[in-house]
Write a structure and sequence with these properties.
- The protein is built from twelve helices and 15 strands.
- The chain is an alpha/beta fold.
- Among the domains are: about 140 residues, NAD(P)-binding Rossmann-like Domain (Rossmann fold, 3-Layer(aba) Sandwich), CATH 3.40.50.720; about 45 residues, no CATH class.
- It has a nine-stranded mixed beta sheet.
- A hairpin with a 2-residue loop joins β11 and β12.
- α3 packs parallel to α4 and α4 packs antiparallel against α11.
Length: about 350
């Protein structure tokens, strides 16, 4: 089988890993790297014995695909260049700086019959895959993604940096867009929002709460889904998943526990029977598969025509449309400003 030739645009904190994974992938040729930072670009190129280019326009001809891992503000320009040539294009999340630009890229891909994939890597997290297998008709979803400030991705705020991961997961779980959005945020280091909370109400009635922060002293990536199949909790870091659901006798007779409690002299003695007897738990451990490798493999297989990408352009556009709704209703408070109005003015000026 002919090797797939893929280049990487942007070899910073994430792009360098894309380059390494491509170089290690069977049936793939890392065809070059492009980065305006000569020191970083040459270093990655030398590690893998490929050509370094100062700009993506200088990459060699004959590419089957390209991975764009540059800062978000450059995504649209680079993706446009390759999509217009019909080259399969993988763009790290978010697809573009705005929903409008993302929509343009999606339409451009269709116009030129070019594959467009978006790097929402959490879709390839084995823990999330376990959640998807066990969730039936979600009624309430709570997602939390917090971490210390890393001083990377400072060209975007926390909504496009972190929250968009969970927005994408929510859209994948529900299969629908929100009909209403509420949000609040805060500027910590700035100039963009560093903390945000959002409540989404989906068309079917599902309620979603998402908390994102890059000003937290601890790291947490968690997902909790309540639905007709019980409650599924996932730690997306450790990949531990717990599924709590009513026992068969409770499902067939929902009033059973209330009847037992009414017939018991001291209902407090029943508490040890709740979990284990009436509500049963299943603990699962996601495997050790590397999500980035799986994501790149998905891109390669999509280029070969084996299947459509798990996260295509339409999914990337949908996530950005929801992110835009969150940003549009975001009320900002700032540690650097005395009141909300001052914070809003600071954001407008940024």
């Amino acid at each position: 089988m002919k090797p797939v030739r893929i280049a990487v645009v942007g070899v910073g904190s994430l792009g360098q890993h894309h380059a390494r994974k491509l170089a290690e992938s069977p049936g793939v040729v890392l065809a070059g790297v492009a980065d305006p930072n000569e020191v970083a670009g040459r270093q990655v190129a030398m590690q893998h014995g490929v050509e370094w280019c100062a700009s993506f326009q200088q990459l060699p001809a004959g590419l089957d695909g390209v991975i764009i891992a540059s800062p978000t503000i450059y995504h649209a320009e680079a993706a446009t260049y390759f999509l217009q040539q019909g080259i399969a294009t993988f763009v790290e999340k978010p697809l573009a700086p705005s929903a409008e630009q993302a929509e343009s890229l999606w339409r451009l891909a269709a116009e030129h019959d070019a594959l467009l994939q978006v790097g929402h890597i959490e879709r390839f997290n084995p823990a999330f895959e376990l959640v998807q297998e066990r969730v039936e008709t979600p009624l309430y979803i709570r997602a939390q993604r917090v971490a210390p400030y890393t001083f990377r991705s400072t060209d975007i705020g926390v909504v496009h940096d972190l929250m968009i991961h969970d927005i994408d997961l929510v859209l994948a779980l529900t299969g629908e867009m929100p009909v209403s959005t509420e949000a609040f945020g805060a500027v910590g280091v700035g100039p963009h929002e560093d903390m945000a909370v959002a409540r989404l109400r989906m068309e079917s009635g599902t309620v979603v709460d998402i908390t994102s922060s890059r000003m937290s002293p601890v790291v947490e990536r968690s997902l909790q889904v309540w639905g007709v199949s019980g409650c599924v909790q996932a730690d997306l870091q450790t990949r531990k998943v717990t599924h709590w659901k009513p026992a068969a006798q409770v499902q067939s007779n929902p009033g059973m526990i209330a009847a037992i409690a009414a017939a018991t002299a001291d209902p407090r003695t029943l508490k040890d029977r709740v979990f284990g007897e009436w509500i049963q738990g299943e603990e699962l451990q996601g495997d050790e598969r590397d999500a980035l490798s799986a994501e790149i493999q998905d891109f390669v297989e999509s280029i070969r025509g084996m299947h459509a990408p798990r996260v295509g352009g339409r999914e990337g556009v949908n996530a950005l449309n929801v992110a835009a709704q969150v940003l549009n209703c975001l009320e900002l408070w700032s540690w650097q400003a005395s009141d909300n109005e001052a914070a809003r003015e600071q954001r407008k000026a940024a």
